[in-house]
Amino acid sequence: MSSVRWTIDEFIAAEVSFQVLCKPDFKVRFPINIVRSLVQLFEDGCEVPFIARYRRYLIGGATPDDLRHALEAFKNAKVIKAKAEKLLRRADAEIADDLLKEVVKDALSKTMDAGELESLFEPFKKAKKGSLASRAMELGVGEICQKLLRGEYVNLELFINSKPELSTLAKVEEETMHLLSHELHRLEKTQILLEKLSELNNYLNIHLKVKSTLTRKAKFLKETDKNFPLLDHFKLYLNFEKDIRFVQPFQILALERASSKEIINWKIVVDDNIASVHPGLKLSFHFKHVNLLKKAVQDSTKRFLIPSIERKVRKKLLDRAENSAIDCFAKNLRELLLTAPLKNYAVLAIDPGYKNGCKCALVNDNGDLLQTAIFYLKPLDIKGWAPDTRAEEILKTLASKIIDLPLVIAIGNSSATREVQVFVASLIQRRVIVAKFCVVSECGASIYSATKLAAEELPKIDIKLRSAGDFSGFVSLARRVIDPISEYVKIAPKHLGVGLYQHSVNEKRLDEMLDIVVRECVSNVGVDVNIASLQLLQRVSGLNKNTAANIIRYRQNSGGIKSREELKNIKGIGPKCFEQCAGFLYVYNVNNNEGWDALVRKKAKLAIDYNPLDATPVHPESYKIAKQYWILECAGADLTHIGQNCLFQMLAVIEEQIREQGPEWVVVWELLSNPFVRKNGPMLLTNVLEMKSLKVGDVLEGIVRNHASFGIFIDLGIGYDALAHSSTLLSVVPQEHTPSLEDPVSGSGATVHHINKEIRNMTSSYPFNINSHVKVRITELDLNRRRIGVVLV
Questions:
Q1: Could you read off the pLDDT of 620-647 as tens digits, one per residue?
Q2: Phi, psi (5° rounding) for residue 654?
Q3: N or C: which end of the chain has fewer CB within 10 A?
Q4: Structural contact between residues 252 and 210, judged by C-beta atoms closer than 8 angstroms
């Protein structure tokens, strides 16, 4: 039985607050009854997407982000509990005084803070070998210190020459002071003060500041040095000084980045008068030793207390900044993955480049590669580049291949993107081609192009393009426009370019958090189990790479999966796995597919009738509520109405009746009646702007590219992103988008399916999502530094 006196439920309730959906800026603590339900779900192996959709009536409206934080707290609680148990065993073995042992064990068993655990046990740790305190102990001054701490008088002259190193009274006092300093820091009251002073929001009369200074190396940088431009990049932080209570997470991340580049050093500065509040000054010392006590307090403060405060505060600031960075990355990733697909368009992707040329790939509306080409940019006599003479004819020929679909040209945002945008815009303006264009992030495209998956998907690509490098990346750009989530899941999230300072945070923790977000998005959007790729399937709640491969193998051998119930026959999908994944795997009526012929039906081992609910977000465990009971019946509908627009109006009429039945019924009703979701798609353009043509006061349209805690970055189509500072966003409401039916994540985009209400809520607390279309007014323009400040209108 655990000796720790707190539970995981209590830890999560104390550590995690959750978002109130109707009040985005308001957070409250998790009620203990909800936490208990949540812990039980985690213990049972339930994943965040499953809980957020199918157990939301147990979790009080917590968002997926709240659940992610709770899951992390759940894991941390187990680690801290194990650490507390270990220290309790050490206390049993190492503390001789029974009364003191019980006092220490009582404190250790109650605290839920890992740092406080260390502080509580600090007085019972032995001095490090080779330290001043351990040397003093070896010289035999331990007895002196114990008597002094009890308030007794000690004649220090009696110890002169007791050891060769103690040849004078001054040396005896010095060694005594060293050990006394160590003992003063180990006092329980000193450790309590340390914890209080290390709080980021402490309001004691001791001020702590973050301060930066130039490194010695940075002071001697010359204009010709590689790192010289970094001085301008980090100029706001070269002489930074701020109270720790008011420093922002992004500022800490910037300081840490500048430190890693050897531009600045940053540290925590503690008030000089901190020694005046040291608990050691309140000890009852013999009046003849008061001066020795004061020296020991000063020494203990300088060598132990201040460095301890600096380490703890620095760690807390970095932890808070890391949490902020990961949350920001997770939010941006979710919005990117939930970008609306551009359906019923052909896409011509261009991967711009100077040296290796501009690689082109034409794909149809299903993402199938039709043709590839390459053109080059040539340097002009004056500064700049322009397409060669063949470029116009190449793009005109590619565009002519598309007859029955509108064409969008997707231009990568890497080097030479500006030249290509200007060139394409000129072709559109001169009506050489009939199309619109958009700018697509190339982040991760080169990573994907070097993978085995890329070679398998595009085995017949032009060898010239393959030898030019990044041979698959530009095809990936086109598919990102047509079916974003299916393409983005092929790339590790950290390579997608939607995080700030991601290299300054713990890589393992970042990967774990982002993986949860990807699973949330893929699961909540849902996948067509009969055509989804391995990359999509393995990201579904409850599935992994092995079970996803088993699904693909099974559907190939059997001719297709005919119902969700049939999933139970697949190797690796047991009861728990089925519970977690079934509601996110959509099964459409394969009997109506041309490939499902009589021979396949005859060979099928199971003759399972198709259930239209298998093509909805309703979980099989709730089919009885949806069908056998009266949700559909009461609405005057039946299973044949599934997937038809008229069903939603029919269900809306019975909302009050459903709510009277209880929360489980409400969940099923919402999954049936709220299938619509519409996220922001690419901004389609026909022309480009020049930065030199802009002026303060201009109103422009743009698209949100990235979030940060200090604002949002907006692409205005001029080659450089503008910044809307967070202080200007508080009263601005984003544009609303008309809901429409979306296609299942399948890679082919052939069938209409339903996506439930909670996806719409996943980003409801943020004023603007990635790819939001916004209008802005320019408030600041710096042509030399290529910086633009805007406010939203």
A1: 998 888 875 567 777 777 777 777 777 8
A2: -100, 20
A3: N
A4: yes
Cα-flanking dihedrals φ and ψ of residue 617, to 5°? -75, -5
Least confident of 242-246, 567-571, 689-693: 689-693
The angle at the Cα of 259, spanning 258 to 260, to the nearest 5 degrees, equals 90
- Give me the pLDDT at residue 254, please: 92
Q: Can you give the pLDDT at residue 405?
A: 93
Report CA-CA distances (Å) from 362 to 449, 467, 475, 505: 17, 19, 8, 39
**Residues 527, 533 contacting (CB under 8 angstroms):** no
Say yes or no: domain 691-792 is CATH 3.50.50.60.
no
Options 3.40.50.1220, 3.30.1130.10, 3.30.450.40, 3.30.420.140; CATH of 346-482 = 3.30.420.140
Give alpha helix (H) positions in 95-163: 98-110, 114-121, 132-138, 142-149
**Spatial CA neighbour of 338 closest among 150, 598, 518:** 518
Q: What angle do CA 698, 704, 705 make, to 5 degrees?
A: 120
Report, as an integer, the average pLDDT of 220-229: 88
Enter the CATH code of domain 202-337: 1.10.3500.10
Residue 135: pLDDT band with limits 50, 70, 90: confident
Query: What tokens were used for 228?
Result: 């010289």
The most distant pair of C-alpha atoms in the chain lies apart, rounded to whole Å, by 107
In this model, does residue 225 exceed pLDDT 80?
A: yes
Tens-place pLDDT, residues 687-729:
888 777 788 888 888 888 887 778 888 888 777 788 988 877 7
- For every residue of 433-489, DSSP letters joined together read S--EEEEE--TTHHHHHTSHHHHHH-TTS-HHHHHTS-TTHHHHHHHHHHSHHHHHT
Which tokens go with 154? 């000690």
Domain 519-673 adopts which CATH fold?
DNA polymerase; domain 1 (1.10.150)
DSSP 636-691: T--GGGTT-THHHHHHHTTHHHHHTT-HHHHHHHHHHH--------PPPBS----G
Q: CATH number of 8-124: 1.10.3720.10, 1.10.287.1490, 1.10.10.10, 1.10.10.650?
A: 1.10.10.650
The pLDDT confidence band at residue 76, using thresholds 50, 70 and 90, is very high
Residues 400-438 pLDDT 10s:
999 899 999 999 888 888 889 999 999 999 999 999 999
Q: H/E/C letters for each residue in 561-626?
A: CCCHHHHHHCCCCCHHHHHHHHHHEECCCHHHCCCCCHHHHHHCCCCCCCCHHHHCCCCHHHHHHH
Give the pairing of strands 585-586 and 346-351: unpaired
Amino acid at 356: N
Residue 28, classified by CB atoms within 10 Å of its CB into exposed (0-12), middle (13-18) or buried (19+), is exposed
Q: What angle do CA 296, 298, 301 make, to 5 degrees?
A: 105
d(CA 14, CA 16): 6
In angstroms, rounded to a whole number, what is the distance separating the alpha carbons of residues 39 and 509?
Answer: 21
Q: How confident is residue 557, by pLDDT bands cut at 50, 70 and 90?
A: very high
514, 573 contact by CB (below 8 A) = no
